[in-house]
Amino acid sequence: MRVEVFPTTEELGQEQQIPWQDPARDARFVDLRENPAAIETIEPVRESRALAGFLIAINSADSLFLTARARTWLEKRPAGEDACAFAGQITFAFADTQANFDRQAFTLLFEKLRALLAATETSPALRVRLALHPCRYGGQAGRGFCASVLVEAHGESEGQARLRWTLGLAHVQQALLFSSRMLRQERRQSI
Fold first, then answer.
1. CB burial readout 59-93, b (16+ within 10 A) else e
2. In terms of Cα–Cα distance, which of 165, 146, 8 is closest to 71?
3. 0.85 cut: is pTM over it?
4. How many domains does the chain have?
5. Do strands 126-137 and 143-155 pair parallel, antiparallel, or not at all (unpaired)?
6. Per-residue pLDDT of the chain (191 residues; tens, 9 = 90+)
7. Strand 143-155, strand 21-22: pairing
8. What is the rounded CA–CA span in Å between residue 48 and residue 37?
9. What's the domain range around 63?
C-alpha cells in the first residue's frame, strides 16, 4: 500500500465547508454522530456496504472523528493488469470542533496514520492519500482545517478493484480508530 500525505509543504487542499449543501445534486452534510439512521440518505452508501460500515465506525462514540462527505467512483481503462480503478474519498474532522482549529492536531494524526498504514502489508495496487484542507465551520469565526482520505485500488476487473478497495478501506478504518484511541489516551495522560 502506498501512503501519501498532502501537503508535504504549506500547500493545502481545496477549501471545504462543514456543514455543506449542494442543491444542484440534492446533497448535504449529514451528521451521523447525531443521527446514525440518516446513513441511508448518503448516495454512495447505497452502492457500498463497506462504506456504510466505515462511516458508522468513524462516527461512533469510540471515535474522535466525524465524517462530512463521502464519494466513490469507478474508472475503466483499456484491458490489462490495471483495467479498472475503484476509488473513494471521505472528508472528516474532529468531532470536537475546537480541535479543528489546531493544525498541530491534524499533523499529529497524519503522523500516526502514516505509520500505521505504511506498516500494513497489502497489494501494491492500493494507494491511500491523506490531505489537509482549510475548512470553514458554520457558526464559527475564522478558518480551521479538515482532512480527507482517498483510497484507490486497481484491478483486472471491476470486482477485483472493488474488493481491493474494500480491504484498503478496512485498513484505513482500523488506523483511524486506533489513532483515536491513542490520541484519547495521550489527552488523559496530559491532564
1. beeebbbbbbbbebeeeeeeeeebbbbbbbbbbbb
2. 165
3. yes
4. 1
5. antiparallel
6. 788 887 655 567 889 999 999 988 888 999 999 999 999 999 899 889 999 999 999 999 999 999 999 999 999 877 666 789 999 999 999 999 899 999 999 999 999 999 999 887 667 889 999 999 999 998 777 789 999 999 999 999 999 999 999 999 999 999 999 999 999 988 788 76
7. unpaired
8. 16
9. 2-190
